[in-house]
Amino acid sequence: MNRLPTLALLFSLAAPLAGCSLAPHYERPASPVGEAWAEPVATAGADAVQAADMAWREFFTNPTLQSLIADAIDNNRDLRVAALNMERAAAQYRIQRADRLPTVGLDGAHASQRVAEDLSSRGESYVSRQYTASIGIAAFELDFFGRVKSLTDAALEQYLATEEAHRSARLSLVSQVAMGWLQLVADREQLRLSQETLDSQRATYDMIRRRFEQGVASELTLWQAQTSVDTARVDIARYSGMVAEDLNALSVLVGRPVKSEEIPEYALNGATDFPELPVGLPSEVLLNRPDILQQEHLLRAANANIGAARANFFPSISLTTSLGRGSAELHDLFGGNNGTWLFSPSLYLPIFDTGRNLATLRVSEADKKIAVANYEKAIQEAFREVSDALTLRRTLDQQLEASQSLVKATSEAYRLSDARYRSGVDSYLEVLDSQRAMYAAQQSCVSVRQARDANLVGLYKALGGGWK
After folding, report:
1. Residue 346 counted as domain residue
2. Burial class (CB in 10 A: 0-12, 13-18, 19+), 250
3. Which of 60, 171, 306, 320 can bridge 467 by disulfide, Cβ–Cβ 3.0-4.6 Å?
4. pTM to 2 decimals?
5. Does residue 417 lie within any of the structural domains?
């Protein structure tokens, strides 16, 4: 009897049923944050380029910084692990997807057996030989209730989640390198400022020492001048160590040793020239962040796993079938009426499993609730990051303007007090106070400028930029 039409009919009936799924209908959870930012911002125009669509080379235009970021993307070990996890998830998805189609295999076998005389129906011992060749399907599950489909959907969402995790890791790495770069430039500028202050105070100290030797200046004035020199020396030693630490931190991020000489000397106002970042509505911005997309894919995977858990309550049908040839002699294997076939469907109906299937369903439902909470948490954290960056954005601009004005005022006060001291009008204590105020204002201005640039980098990252 020819079984090929029967098998074809069986598969044609199973195909539409295999497309069903017992997974709940997926609905994206409502956003747990407001529809506007805490800090009022101008709405981005229709033609404005969103941060998520702005490649990092368009935002970070300094050539040296671009080179460091490119090396980090190529060499960073954390990013490499994220990429390998993505490749692994893709392979795992292909494995799971393969279960939706039957595996067809070709089998050939030979068996020889000597039958003992006492066991032989012929009354004498003999050697029995058997040759077989067949092609068929082994234990293919007919997915009537969508169990395999749900598992395949879950594997796909897991892969997409790792893809978003890789994008998120890339975004984080780009911003970390930029932050490390800004810290290095700021510490170098502080070191340069300390060195200039030391040179200036040494010249002043030498002048006062000569006046002291001539009996014009007091010993108190000499020691006061010495304190300014030593303060600058302490700062030089401190910032030299911080610059070395900054280089070490960059080396870890970049994935190779970063030498001081390969990074030109920059002032903060020459090292950065970041473009303006338009900010849209939260619903537009947050959905572009890879970490939020990652959590949504994990939520979809958990939703699909519920379908697989529900399918465990229903019967499962597996099919094993083959067509082939069999013969006692090899030369007769493909001749004569030696065709063979096997049709072996099997049915498994769960009756009593001590609550295993019900517990599995409860676990999958709990996993979905956890995924929903993680998704909402990711949105809340992203909203807070953007809101904080927008709030600081305005205040840091004000701080920088005030700091620059303070540097100008204290520099002029120092110039006038030094002139009055040299003219014999004021004591050196007035000069010392003016110098300390100017030095502190200069240091503060560098710190505020660094904080402002770091805020722009943080806002770029918070808005989902930097992964391209």
Report:
1. no
2. buried
3. 171
4. 0.80
5. yes
